[in-house]
Predict the structure of LysR family transcriptional regulator.
Amino acid sequence: MAVSYSGLAAFHAVAEAGSFTSAAKAKNLSQPTLSTQVKALEDAYGVRLFDRMGRQVRLTPLGQSLFVITARLFTAQDEAQALLAGTRTLQRGHLRIAADSATHVMAALAKMRANYPGLTFSLTIGNSSEVVDQIMDFVADVAITARPNSDPRIHSIKLRSDNLIAFIAADHELARHDSIPIEAFAGQDIVLRERGSITREVIENRLSMAAVKPMNLLEVQSREAVREAVAAGFGIGVVFEAEFRPDSNLKRLTLTGADFSVGEYVACRAERRRLPLVRSFFEMVQQIVEGT
């Protein structure tokens, strides 16, 4: 049995929008038309793709699996249309960026926006592992990540290097110093991001190599939470130097005794690197790297 293209398109539109009403409006179709197409797809295979809850819908487990496939399908269709229909002029279009820090992406976005004012952008922030997953799952077009990658499916270039620094509450016992060796972490409480964060990965690796054992670890889910926890006295925080913002409640400390330099990379799926929007973003990054 051949899968109905219209049924898949209707399903994808509803899954993406979260409701039949929003999907109908986005696709300029009537809601009954979409409902009929989705129901025909479900009936043809004797499955349920959505749980209906009033005007909202929720994907069933099968629907979630199908949505992963239709995302690839319709992303490829959009790419083909973009390539053939001339958005290479970049007079319009939408670029989805996933970044592990807004700090590292804004310069390239500002440059691209100035050159192509008709473009729109969306930016999501996650840890280094999450943003790579987003380009692999076709959720994002490009990723800014501190995680180097040798996967042949991924194309990447180095954007910049940054150093990790420590910071503490202004009344912390180490606040009288401007720099500390890695050995100073011994017996100290530390505050770090969740696993998947390159900041955590690097500092834990350096501590292990130096055979330094901190006391307690407080794990939090965002940079803002790290900052708040450190200011409240929960321990030593670690962050990229470019991300640290001066605060009278915090003391910045340079780290010594190990290599704390970390690269930041721009990445995309290798087969998408020649798409006009993606290619142009990489060109903006290259100009920043070269200082032009």
Notes: The first helix runs from residue 5 to 17. Residues 90-159+263-290 form a domain with the D-Maltodextrin-Binding Protein; domain 2 fold (CATH 3.40.190.10).
